[in-house]
Structures are given as structure tokens and as C-alpha cells.
Amino acid sequence: MEHDARADRKQRSLEDASQTTAPPRGQNDLGVSRAEAGGAPRSLFGSFEQKHIALGLSTGLLAGLLALVASVTSTLFIFAGPLQESFPVGLAMTLMSSVIFGVVSAASGARSFSILRTQEVAIANLGVMALALHAAMRDTHSREEIEATVIALCALGAAFVGTGLYAIGRFSLTRYLRFVPDCVVSGYLASVGFLLLKSGVLALAGADGFQSTVTSLSNPDAVSRLCGGGFLALLLLIIESRSRSRLAAPLLILAAIGCFQIVIRWSGLSIDSLERHGWVVANAPKELQNLPPLAPARLREVDWIALLGQAPSMVFLVLTSALGEMLALSGIERVSPKAQDVDAEFKNAGAANLLVAPLGAVPGFHSTVHTLLALRFRAPRRIVAAMIALVCLLALVSGKPFLQLMPWPLFGGMLIWMGVVGLKDWFFRGLLEMKSAHAIVKALILSVVVAFGFYQGMVFGALAGAFLFILEYARTGVVRLQISGREYHSSLTQFDDRRLAAIKELGDAIVILRLKGYVFFGSAHGLRERVQDALASDRRLECIVIDFEEVAGVDGAAAMTLEAIGRDARAAGVEIVFCGLSEEHRRSFAGLGLNLSAGFHLFSNLEQGLRYAEDEVFSRHRPSVVAQDPVSVFAWLVQATGSEALAARLAAAGEAMRFAPGEAVIVEGQQSDELYVVAHGEASVEMTSAGGGLVQLAIFGPGALFGELAYLLRTPRSATVRAKTELDVWRLSRSALDSLGEEAPAAALAFQHFLAARLADRVLGANRLVRYLSR
Ligand SMILES: Nc1ncnc2c1ncn2[C@@H]1O[C@@H]2COP(=O)(O)O[C@H]2[C@H]1O
Questions:
Q1: Which ligand 1 atom lies nearest to the CA of residue 705?
Q2: Among 113, 502, 581, 769, which is most buried by a count of CB atoms within 10 Å?
Q3: What's the complex ipTM?
Q4: What's the protein's topology in the membrane (predicted)?
């Protein structure tokens, strides 16, 4: 049931025409121009609208008839067997729900595009509870009391489902339900197709299973119904694939109803004999009494204590309904041309259930079948929903006479047709192009539904979805980047010539693993393998830095693997540094008895962790680098200009300064033009982030140069530089360098060259950072 792009545009213009007021400048709310929408006038009585109203009415009539069939069959989920006598009141409850759901769908805003209906998943749950109630009450209570208690059960069910769905939508919890993989959604849709096909065949054969269907083939009435319904389904399939008009299929069905009525009148067949031969609905009640079912007078008959015993099942009812609603919306979303607001749809469904609950009606949520029917014929959703409400209301008020207007094979034929189309579109289409594991899951879901039932299939689908998620997530792995300490280093090293020279030689002693995503038992194992590979492959390795800054979560089982990683590393004489593990993770690890600070070095961010790792390596191989010895500014200037004479002239042009810890040397946004060289101590560079907080960009140690941007570009200061410790700097103002340029041009030029090289180096550093972050 997929559309091409042109058809999608038409659908949008159609929804727009029926649901929104005229938007500005000749565009509808989806940006489709009027010309695209067919160039027709938007007057209420224009030909464009009339055609779509007709389409809405005829599709709505079909959807309404389908809702009727479904109401009868789903009522049997509760009111069959021992509760059979209460069938009339049960049918009234189901029809009443269908009416209210139809009205809510028709009244809901233009952004919604789905149709609500009573749902078998929820009703079957209530059926199981109703049976349990009956078993508990049958010896002590009257039939009326049991009936009243079951009605109250349904009302409570609707109230719970309503509250649950509304809360999920209100607090945007749908994102947690959205992990459902595509193969599970298409498996669900294919199962809906199968169930439609199956119920069509069973309805026509008058059977309740495979065995009785085969037996029914000896009954000429059943055979004639099957042939009639099958023929209609075939005609619908042919007409749908051949005809260009969307009205063709609805018109065929309306024509079939008309022909049936003409044949009855003409042949003089009595309704009784048609009922006997199963050509019209037979088990419908003559008149529907007790409206609303949960009248205040009946509340006294309810056994509330017995109801309380069903509380655990109520939780299950809400959970399965929420999952069913999510699956239904995911299925609709796949086929629909519009993006939907799932949270708003959940709230809608919740509110509708809360509306039906006080009346004693049954719960429901979005209907894949009815919504897809409207989408298939590109009929205005609101008109279709209103028609469903109207058809169910007529059946509710007039009972049997209305239900018997339609021939039974028509219901069956429609179900078979929709079932075949569903299986074709959702099971077979794209099956071969899918990943084999996904195709197998889809086929298994359908098989479980065929062999054991819908409920079991959905539970299997949820489990298979979770399993696939774990499998694929574990395979993706959490290690997004493995990089050596030579390629990526701390900002302190980046801006310190001595550290930079040392890291070029010793950087391979450090390996950085950048993690991303969720670390759980599946993905943590992949991390351990990476660590083991690194330990085995590089003898020079001294430190592994694991960066958790981008990790969304770590679970308890992963903590055990982290402990094992620590053991592997210690055995190889390698240190493990963890960076960016949140306080929350550390606490939860401690709760599991895992003391991370005992076996690992923990730092709040990568910069600090890397600095520690570099210091460890330097202290073993280059102790002078770590000592952070003060730098002689004169020696620094000699290195910068290449000459002692030039360095002496430059040194005389600048001045020495001292800052206390925390004091700002440069303030972001201010206009000043001096540059600085760190002689002793540390300074940090901070920038105001888009969110208003401070981001640390780098740390400068002895030998680092800063303030060169405003100095060279004459722009306001790009960041704040603040003393971290007591800080000694050498400062050179632009005016001092300018006058030096006149007196000693060679010194000024050599220094300018040096500055250019430093800037180029900074660009390379930025590139390394981008490479690190872009994985
Ligand atoms: N991303 C960065 N990494 C290192 N240093 C920086 C960074 N951004 C700004 N700076 C330094 O901070 C100084 C702030 O003043 P300036 O803009 O004059 O010059 C700036 C640079 O020297």
C-alpha cells in the first residue's frame, strides 16, 4: 500500500483541502501549491471538494462496515462461552466505543491523520480477565452481578489504558518504545494482513478454525458464501490494480450491496431464510438495551473486591496496549505521506479512552486497517472517521435491521481482499532485499502468528526486536576511534614546544580509545577485545586512555567487563586511564561493589586524562619536560628569531609581568593588542559557549605564546586567558613591535615569521581535533 511521489502530493493536497483553512500565498500547510493540488478552486462546493467528499463518504462506508464486523467479532472475545448471554450488552459496549472513537478521530486536529478504533489486543486481554472474574464469582453471584462486574472491568480497562497512553504521550515516553526495528513493524503489518485474510475465510465458512473450515466445504451454503466472497475479493484486487480511479473499489462494493437488495426484493427471499443460510448477520441482537452499559444503578451490583484481584492483569493490559499502539503508529507511519507526531497521537488515543471509560465501553487505540484504508483510497480521514461513527451509531440504535442490509459474503470478501493486499505489500515486498536476519525475524513473526496467534506473535516480535537490537549494537561496537598519543595530544602539549618534541618520539606509548553510544554487556566485550589487541600488538604501550565523554550510559554488567580490562592491563604492566565517567556511573559501579579508583586512574575529562598519561610517559623517559621548569624568555626569543642580537632587541621591547592564580590576563571580547609568552606557571584558555557556559579550549605552560590573534588581526579577544597558578609572562605590545620594525627591521621580520609558523601549527592542531571528534 505504497504511493508514488505524485500520489503523495495529491494525498497531502487532499488532506489539506478537507482539514485546514486556506494558508497564505497559494500554498497549503505542507507547502503544496494549489496548482499542484489540481488547480481547482477551494470553494466548499467546487468540483474538487465534491469528488473528495464522495470518496470520503464511500471509503467511510466501507470502513464503517469493517468496523461493524470487527465489533461483532471482538465482542465475542469477552462475551462468548459462559458470558454468552450478555452478548447484546457487550455489542452495545463495543459499538458505543466505535462511535466515540470515530467522533474523536473526526474531531482531532489536522496534524493527526490516524483513525482510532476498539482494539482486539486490548479486548482479548479483558476477555481473559472476564473469564477469571466469572470463575471466581459464578458460585456466589447472580448473572446480573457478574455482568455488571465485567462491564465495570471494561470501563476500568479503558480508564487505565487511557491514562497510560495519555501519560506516555504527555511525557514523551514514546522514544523508549521506538526501538522497534523495521522488520518487526513489517512483520506486525503482515500479521495484520494474515489475520484479515483468515477472519474473512472463517466468516464466510461460518467456521472457527482450520478444521471446521475444511468440514464446512461439505455445506453448500458455506461453499456459496466462500465463492461469493472470494469472487468479490478477486474483483476488488483486479479493479484496484487496473483502474485509475480511486472510487472504483468503493463503488464496486456499494454496487454489490445495491444488487443484493434488488435480488432480495426481486426473488422475494425472506430475511429469515437468508439468516438461516448465513447470507446476512445472524447473531446480532434484535434491540440493544441498557444504554449506557454502566448505568449508575448497576454500580451497586459490581463486586469491587473481585475486580481488585485483576489489578496485575490491568498493568499487562496497559503495557500491551502501549506496545500495540506503538506498532500500529509505526506501521501507519511507514505508509503515510505525512510525518506524524507520535506523542500527540498517544495523547489523542488516551483522551478518547478516558472519554469512553465512564460509559462502560471497551478500550482501543489507532487502527492500522482503518487508517490504511483511508490512505489507500486517499480519502479525507475526518470524513472516513465520521462515517465509521455514523455506521456504528446506526447499528447501535437500530440493531439487527441495519446490520442485515449488507450481505455477509461482502464482509468476508472485503476482509480477504485487504488481507491479500496486506500480505503482498508488507510481507513479500522487499523481503529479498532485506538483511537475512531481518527477513528471518519477519518470517518468524508471521509464522508464530499463524501457528499460535496474534498475541504470541507480538510478544515474539518484541523479544526478537530487542535481541536484534542487542546483536547489532554489539556488532557496531562502542569504540569509535583508536588513535595513538603521537597523533592526538593534550592542549598543554600542543602549545608547549618541549612537550611537543617529546610526544613525537614517545607518543606511541599511549593509545586513546574514544567510546560512543551505550556500554552494556554486548558492547563492553568488544571494548575488552580492542584493549587486548592493543596490549598484544604493541610492546611500547604504557598507557591506555579510554574516553567516556560521549557515552550515553554504562550498565552494571559492563562494569564487570571494565574490571576485567583492568586486570588484563595490569598483567601487561599498562595503566588504564578513564576519562569522562560521570559521577552517576561511578556511584552505580560502587553500588555493584566495583571500586574503580582502586584499579584505574579516573579523570573528569579527556584533557586531564591525557595530560596525566603524557606526564607518566614523560616522567619515565624525559623527566625535565614534566618538571615544567621555567622558560628563559631570552632563550625562547633566540629560538624564535634565530639570533641572539635580534632576540636581545626584542626582549628589550617587551616587559615581564606576574599574575596571581585566577586572575585574567586577557578577557574575551575586549579590545587590546598585546601578545604574551609564558615564562613560568600555567594559564587556561576559556571561551563562552553558545549556551552561555564556559568551555576550556587549552592549557598553556612555560614556552606557550598567546594573544597573537588580536595582535595580528586587530580583532577583539577571541577567548579569556586566566592564570591557573602563579603566572610569569613576557608581554609585547603592537606599538613596541612597530617601533622595533623601524629601528631593527630584521628582528621584527624574524619574529613575524615565527608568529606565522605558530599560527599554522595551531591550524594543524585544530585539524587533529576535528579528526578526533568526527568519528
Ligand atoms: N582554540 C584555541 N586553542 C588555543 N588557544 C586559543 C584558542 N582560541 C583562542 N586561543 C588563544 O586565546 C587568545 C585570546 O586572545 P586572542 O584572541 O588575541 O588570541 C587567542 C589565542 O592566543
A1: 22
A2: 113
A3: 0.98
A4: Multi-pass membrane protein
